[in-house]
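Example: FeS cluster assembly protein.
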Amino acid sequence: MLEIKNLTATTSAQEGKRSAASILKGVNLNLKAGEIQIVMGSNGSGKSTLAKLLAGHPAYNILHGSIRFRNEKLVRCLPETRARLGLFLGFQYPMEVGGVSNQDFLRLAYHSRYKKKDDILNTSLRFANRILNYVKILDMDSSFLPRPLNQGFSGGEKKKNEILQMAITGCELAVLDEIDSGLDVDALKTLSKTILIYQLDSLFNSRFLQTTKSLILITHYQRLLEYIKPDKIQVMKEGKIVCSGKSNLGNIVDRKGYDWLSGTGLGSCLIENINKKKLQTLKESVF
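Written out as structure tokens, the predicted fold is:
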């Protein structure tokens, strides 16, 4: 479904500068239909940059590499084209938009994907049914729907609204940037449950009873793994994916931290050799 090859990127402000520093430095990632992958890493490792690049954020430029989503090249696609292809980005800090009600925003987003395939009446009925179902699953108050988009919402309510948008648009790939940050235990359980229900919903709509919805969850912490078991964990450091493994890799990182994978500073050659042995041991324990 998603294939990223040797992706190198910088910010638009640095474009054309000889000394422009790359934020992403050769990222490679493959995601199959129906897979859940978690991308972990410390602050500044490039996780959010990768998410925004996938969505087509204008603040970043691709210097080298390719991104293919559902056999389409994304590099030159506009953000709205990517969204219509089925790519959704859940923001780490959702924006507040005054003058636009939450319900109108969701309706327009839904119709933009489906109105060309079906008549407006059937689409509107499905939208109403879908939004009521997911508002209930998310344990949201329906009074949030006529209110301005995210305006006056708490941090947890904004995160729930992001998941509601994901479910309403019926995206094929959802990239959720630190959807677990700032949530209490109950809110995290509710969001995790909704994410899994959304993914499993595609199972019953598939001719071959296979899940087709894919997820990339970006996080710092291991606690998300208590509720969602991924097919693979990718660990980013300094703009690269430096380690991949099964779900128990998150437990190892939680115990040892991200500096365990570092090879810089005094005696870097010695540390690099030690890390090679550590990574070999890690791969043996993971696989």
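Residues 185-204 form the longest helix (20 residues).
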